[in-house]
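Recap for those who missed Tuesday's class. We walked through two folding examples back to back. For each one, the amino acid string is listed first and its predicted structure tokens come directly after. Nothing is annotated here on purpose, so try labeling regions yourself before you check the end of the notes.
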Amino acid sequence: MSKNIDNEYVRDNRTILISLILAAVVAVVYWQVVGHGFTSLDDRLYIMENPNVASGLSSGNVAWAFTAFHASNWHPLTWISHMIDCQIFGMRPGMHHFVSMLFHMANSLLLFLVLRKMTGMVWRSAFVAFLFALHPLHVESVAWAAERKDVLSTFFWMLAMWCYYRYAWHSGISRYITVLIVFALGLMAKPMVVTLPFVFLLLDFWPLQRLQYGKSALPAALDAGKSVQTDPSMPSKKGRSKRKEAARSTSSPQNDSLLTLPAKKPAMSLILEKVPFFILAAASGAITMIAQKRGGAVASMEALAFGERLANAVVAYALYLWKTVWPLHLAFFYPHPETIPWWHVALAAVVLVSITAGAVLSYKRRPYLLVGWLWYLGTLVPVIGIVQVGGQAMADRYTYIPLMGIFIMVSWGAADLAFQARLKRSTVAAAACSTLAALAVFTWIQIGYWHDDAKLAAHAIDVTKGNYLAYNILGLALESEGR
């Protein structure tokens, strides 16, 4: 007993230290945004020239936030967030960016803490959080003032995951309603959160392992080689005994800590449990479609045929993966191509099908691969372009939530491969730190392009072709300087 308490004490101290380092790294890498200005990319529409936001917090402005479809969107909490910034900081753009940086920091910390709690794995969870915090694809969501909705909605997403973990451990109506409320708050920040109920189902499979299997169908290593114990905070002896019967122990030198598992339920019970969440998601989706159609943001089938949308979606899924591995030549706007070569679509489809097949075939031994991959595929659905909104083929900001799934695959997969290859911990740590250092440098450089319109547009012109929006913004920026 004394040894377990000592181990838990060490793990808690390690968690605190990692959290402090993570927060410090985000602050150092993103601090330059405090010196940035607003951009022409919706910042005027959202903040500078929006009287309901620029005038700050008031009852009338809050009522407007909940009833308006301004800028083809309905996200009242995002509007209120901007109002609070204007109320406190006025039109000092650096402080608006500073608040977005704080949200990104909070999201990174919550991701680490939630994964650490759900899986019991400290270092793997930490690596996921650092990848999330430092990846250049996430710069757009943080350094662009008008994209406050990304970091704000993800903040509620992570809070909902934390609350869901608590509910999964000890089901109760109050905890269930809390998850539902936090989910609703996320939807009111950005409708991208509609996919969270789907992710809850994935979490039920792994790492929470709430899904009840028959004896013949029980995966051999759902817990990916981690020891398990029941939640010591559970007051019910009967509940503890059930969890002890449900828990399975396997040995692995990769253990970071003990993993606690909630009670298991049949699949249908878990699905029915999510019905209120899916109803809220459907309502949010309907409101969003109304707002975007009224604002003329949804492209018609005549303007962009379904076949073209589908082809672009397949290619975009693969391109996001490539940009995750090789995060260079990033731009604020990627024009929709007039034509997509058939071999681009074929190659992207082969990549996606191959990864899907690998994840499915390895679900018993490495369930995190299937969960992470379905997380990526599923959470991108609302913005992959089947319902085309705007003229972009893809956007870096769309990866803010989906890449969490890829990072889980990378972190857990790399740890397992390192164990199989019998690599020293010092070697693994050096490789991880080198990867994060490289990402930090690329992110720092990418943040610099968001300093002003001229830098942002000039860089986009350099790394893309036919970027009419970038040319337009650059021309207006030069004109404003008398050039």
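Example two. Treat it independently of the first, because the proteins are unrelated.
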Amino acid sequence: MRVRLLLSIVGTSLLGLTLFAILDRAGVGGAGAISVLLILSLAAGLTLLLSQPFGVASDFAERLSRGGSPPRLPENAPGQTGDLYRALNRLAESHRSRVRQLGAEQAETEVLLSEMADGVLALDSNGSVVRANAELRAVVGSADPIEGRAMSSIFRNPDLVRFLAPAALPADGANGEFEVFGRNMLVTARPLPTDGIVAVFSDVTELRRLDAVRTEFVSNASHELKTPLTTIRGYAETLLDDGIPESDRQSFAARIVDHSERMAALVEDMLTLARLEEPDRWIERVPVRLSALAESISSDLALRAADAGIELVLECEPPELRALADPEGVRQVLENLIDNAIRHSSASQITVRASKADSNRVNLSIEDDGRGIPVAQLERIFERFYRIDPSRSRETGGTGLGLAIVRHWVESMGGDVRAESTLNEGTAFHVRLPAMES
């Protein structure tokens, strides 16, 4: 600004000297020449006086437009210059406030996008990625930014690529479920005012798995209940016939009782599983003396084991070994595992062993010397209603839920359970639980 002012003064001075020389040669008197020179000087001064505020204002606006923060203009300037400076200062304050607000909103948006459990993808009108949050990058398996890449180069599912094509998206958006890198994704797409689209990817893989488990459970439970119900109905209808012998009547009544007990046991096991799966279920954690509990349960099951020709053996070292667990949970775990071995193992001996696994864990093992379980089936034996030999399992009265209950109880108490087996040599179930601190 100062340079322009200096150049203006020099220019005006040179112009005045030139005119003075011309007038002098033309014979104009010295007084006239001086008068002309004074008028020109006055005009130049007025021009500089009037143009200087506009130059200051121009510099101020230019610095503001480039994102700078120019110093406030003097608002005590006289006349309209002061009004202009005050207006520019208010404009600058409003601009700074808006920039701060936009910065805060952008930071908030960044936090929201980064913390979202769903993937968010924004595409331009050509189908190129404009924005993708960290969750979306995790979905597609990319640790690096994917902005600028074509959407068709990221997704392998052609149906999803067609679904996300901006030109094909309806004005009110669309929803669809697609397989994305091995996961089930619910994709919700909506058009943007800029002719692009924004899509939200929600992982529903676990939800679909649970739906399948629930459907399978209802189907299996219905099948398990249908068999005894059909049998009970048949025997009951037969009992309505007055002509059947008394011996058959007694036999049919006994079978009705057997099947009703089986149904009651099945319903009780299903209720137990339902209670164990409640997210707010309270699990008690108190010292549980394993030797005493194992001896009590073995005593209750000793008669059944003897009838099956099985010897129950208890081994606990040290005798005072304690687990930090739910007493009812440990009882149900031992009862189900010992009962399962008596029913299905065809063993001559079942050993219940409690020992110290390490400084933080105790180990409970139920081992038999029976026919064993095929290795291919070991991974599935803890599933609900899974039976190695369905016909034989029903004959022995099992509900098919015992090992599922064992797994849920053990995991809810902070432990783990596994099985190992060798055909014709036996099976061992190993349960690890938190140990009572010594």
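Answers for example two:
Residues 79-115 form the longest helix (37 residues).
Residues 1-7 have pLDDT under 50 and may be disordered.
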